[in-house]
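ok here's Aspartate-semialdehyde dehydrogenase:
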Amino acid sequence: MKKYNVAVVGATGMVGQKMLEVLEELKFPVENLYPMASARSAGKKITFAGKEYEVEELTPEAFDKDIDVALFSAGGGTSEKFAPEAAKRGVIVIDNSSAWRMDPEVPLVVPEVNPEDLKWHKNIIANPNCSTIQAMVPLKPLNEKYGIARIVYSTYQAVSGAGVKGYKDLENGIQGAEPQKFPHPIAFNCLPHIDDFLPNGYTKEEMKMVNETHKILHDDSIAITATTVRVPVYNSHSESINCELRKPFEVEDIQKMWEETPGCIVQDNPAENIYPMAVTATGTNEVYVGRIRRDFSIENGLNFWCVADNIRKGAAANAVQIAFALIDQGLI
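and the structure:
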């Protein structure tokens, strides 16, 4: 198998480290690895596949090397500045920030859902928001078979989604320390506030779910609303998803459809207390669905519970899966 030269930008951060772990775990065919980070982290050592590497400073000139693909997880400002520098040098950028997601020239991809969008990339590909990614895996086949008229998202998002500082706020908050990242204590508390508030009363996170769902599913006709909540869980996001479908359905048929959906695992046996949970999703790359049941309050209404590891499937693993999809389609 051909091997590829891979850069990981933000290699010392939470998601960057996980990208390196997933590249190794999934045996991505790496020829040469180039870990990059800010000047502050340059010079640090990382280990990949049993070999030690020194992190180099992220500069435009760092991409003058022969690099096939660069996985970016260094924040929106960094991506806006450096992704075009890499792209114009012929590097395919897979970016985990929000910087490029809604750019009409940039594909927004979940490999199990819309891999065909990779064909029109112009050397920058966007990784969707973590909470959006996991919802897309079960919603895509649902929309294809039954049509979705409306979605109500209610999310319960782990502190790791806010980075190391968010993680520390929970860890230290349990001991009584004041929060440093969040506006209020997250320990023993829930915050209906992820990212900034917008003039329409929604948060940026909530509007990301609305806008990204439309773009990924190529269907602006779906009415969507969202409430996103930070909860005192270290890792893995949970979501209650309510859908109004356009066609009648049987719950058993939907369950069977999801059992056959790549990347989707059904855990739904209430009699045995089996349903998706954050503690069991953590450390895996799949999306888990359960509590699948009819919503009796509306015609063709469906409720289900959806859980995934936000640092893996919601970020690092999805990015690496995009890189594999590029290989599969002969685009790299």
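+1. The longest helix spans residues 130-146.
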